[in-house]
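ok so i was messing around last nite and threw this chain in just to see what happens. nothing serious, just curious
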Amino acid sequence: MLLISFGSLIWLGFLRRSTLQHLQALNNHTDILEQRIVQSQTQAHQLASILDSADVPIIATNHAGTIIQANLAAKATLGSGRPLIGEFFDALITQSIIRQLEHRARAGESGHARLQLPIGANMRVFDVAADPIPSTQGAVCTFTDITELSESATLKADFAANASHELRTPIASILGAIQTMEGPASNDPDMIQRLITMISTNATRLDLMVKDLLDLSKLESTLTPVTLIEIDMHALIEHTIEPLAAVCDRRGLTITTQIDPHARTILSDESHLELILRNLIGNATKFAHESTTITISVDPIDPEPDPACPIPHQLNGQAGVRIRVCDQGIGIPLAQQTRIFERFYQVDEARDGASARRGTGLGLAIVKHAARTLGGTIRVESIHQQGTTMVVELPRCL
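result:
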């Protein structure tokens, strides 16, 4: 019995030792699993943070087309701020071309497509890229906002078409006049004089157009520096209206200035400011009714900065200025007021009226770019057949 008891004790000790070793191994394995779970959770959190830091909407789907990951940009842009995980991709995106893109990506085929979506009050254009995720048989879709790029391409195409049209007209007139002088009118002094006048008028128009195109090109170039100096507004306005004296005398126009003493001297770029004043005052002298008054006023204000128009870092004043050029003229129809800042656009009255009123169609586009370069804005206040007031606001220049 003693021998049996002794053997049992030895067996129990061995069994206990074996059990403890097994438990220790299980504990070690559990610790390793817990560490791996923590690492996986950390990596998942880091991945989510990386995705959320991207300003491009990114959505990942599984094999069934269910959204399994969506970053903050996707939730804000595509989901109006709501969580998207768990929704079907096809329920979120209604355009069939994007749905098919995601379906093909789940099948292993990458692709691109263009998508237009209303975001807020604007229509935005996105380039959508869909790529397969082999490990889950799902897809990842990125939505890159290319609205500005798309608009730029459209503007370039429109600009080329409009410039060709506007240049063709005076060139055709000049060529026609020359051919007439060389042919039927070669012995007619009166006709030759009229044709010379026509050539001179159209050549002057071409010269003005080239100058305006150069001004616009300089303003659009990011390489052109802004040179800020103290500017006497009264002196600059007097200098700007001096070349317009003959037009004002002929049409009986009076130009008055109202400059607040606190806005007499401002910090700005003189060339940009001169472009703004020259084009606005020049337009006013063209379209004001005869024997009326054009009023130019400059007042201190505190305008709200426009995020779309970065302010030059050298401008750090406490206040800005509002420049108003007001005429009593033909005005601008309400339906056309949103388009007057487009290149080469001219309201119908300018197109159908006297040639003296016809400009290059670039003046207000130049004013807009010059104002934006200084961090400012421009707007129009006009009543058809009663008058127009152009308002430019420049921040932090006082």
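not much to say yet. The radius of gyration is 36 Å.
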